[in-house]
Amino acid sequence: MVPHAGPRAIALVPGVWRMPTFGKNLINSFAFVEPDGSVTLIDAGLRGATRRLVAALASIGVQPEAVSRIIATHAHSDHIGDARRLRTRTGGELHIHEHDAGYVRHGTPPPRDPAVPLAKVLGFLQRRQAKSDVGRDLHRQRRSPPYSEASAFCTRPDTPLVTARFLHEPTGVLITGDALVNFRGRMNYSFAAACTNFKMSKDTADRLGEVDYELVAFTHGPEIRDDARPAVRQFLKERLNKG
């Protein structure tokens, strides 16, 4: 067993773990441990998150060098802020959708929705963010190996800033990215001022009711283990009825 000190990983299903990088569940990354012992991480967290991620891996007996790839849901700083350090510490290759890859490579924040007044203020305050090399650009509906096998992630990225959601088909775990959040156990759409296109982000979230999964895991907030898909569909139905 690898010695550990610090945050522990939370088991979701066999081989899948949630790893908080800020607070108990305010910002989460995820680890998928493959049968051969290799690890896929989802999201790199804010700057400084690598220490917590390494500690969380240690809590399940995993060495950092076991990480073969780091998949980022999108290019916000709370998801890729420590990507460069995490890559260096683990040796894992960073994968992100082709539309977001340029922001990560150049250290520029993605644009924010001009229709949201607060977004303009936030965009003015944040003009730079951490940058990192990107090992692989993901494409819409790309299902080539290794993603079509043990790490069968289905993505639906087709926006200028992708809030991708990942479905790990072998385990039935859905990771929402920022399409849906679950702060304090209350499900909601993403924060409008953080989106490049809030309407498109909502459209992405609305499609989560069409996907089959057993557990829904949020990059912001605690997971839903029981009746996960009905809970998401009920939320979407209520929002639709509210107009």
How would you characterize this protein structure?
The structure is a single chain. This protein is an alpha/beta fold and 243 residues long. It is built from seven helices and 13 strands.
Q: Main traits of this protein?
A:
243 residues; alpha/beta; 7-stranded mixed beta sheet; 4-stranded mixed beta sheet; 7 helices; 27% helix; 21% strand
Helix-strand layout with pairing:
Elements: E1 10-13, E2 16-22, E3 27-33, E4 39-42, H1 49-59, E5 67-71, H2 77-80, H3 83-90, E6 93-97, H4 98-106, H5 117-125, E7 136-138, E8 153-154, E9 166-168, E10 173-175, E11 180-181, E12 188-189, H6 198-206, E13 215-217, H7 228-242
Parallel strand pairs: 4-5, 5-6, 6-7, 10-13
Antiparallel strand pairs: 1-2, 2-3, 3-4, 8-9, 9-10, 11-12
| Largest β sheet strand count, sense and barrel closure | 7 strands, mixed
Tell me the series of helices and strands, N- to C-terminal.
EEEEHEHHEHHEEEEEEHEH
Average pLDDT reading: 81
% residues in beta strands: 15-25%
Give the termini separation.
52 Å
Shape: globular
Radius of gyration: 17 Å
Can you count the helices? 7
Unreliable segments (pLDDT under 50, ≥5 consecutive)?
A: 141-162
